[in-house]
Amino acid sequence: MLDHETAALLRGGCALIVGAGDPGGMPHALRGWGIDVLEDDPLRVRVLLDPPEHDAIGHARCSTHQGPLVAIAIAACAEH
After folding, report:
1. Model's pTM, two decimal places?
2. What is the pLDDT of residues 48-80, one digit of tens each?
3. Can you spell out the DSSP letters for 9-77?
4. Cα maximum dimension of the chain
5. CA separation for the pair 2, 13 (Å, rounded)
6. Distance between CA atoms of 35 and 61, rounded to whole angstroms?
C-alpha cells in the first residue's frame, strides 16, 4: 500500500532496485531507472525499466494464484 508520505519520498528522487518472482518462485532483480507516482485512488507507481531486462519484466507480469510477485527497494540520499 502506498501512502502520501512515501509518494513524497518517491517524487524527490531515489535509487531503485526491482525484484520480481516467476510463478515457480525464482527471483529476478533489475535496476529501475525512474519512478512516477500516479495520482490514482489508491496511489500507484510507474517504474521505468531497461528494455533488455525482458525476462525480469516478463516475470513481473506473470500471474500467480496470488497475483504478480514484485517488490521495489528504494533508497534516498540524505541532504547535508
Report:
1. 0.64
2. 887 766 666 666 665 555 566 677 777 766 554
3. HHHT--EEEEEEE-TT--EEEEEEEEEEEE--SS-EEEEEE-TT-HHHHHHHH---TT--EEEEEEE-P
4. 46
5. 16
6. 17
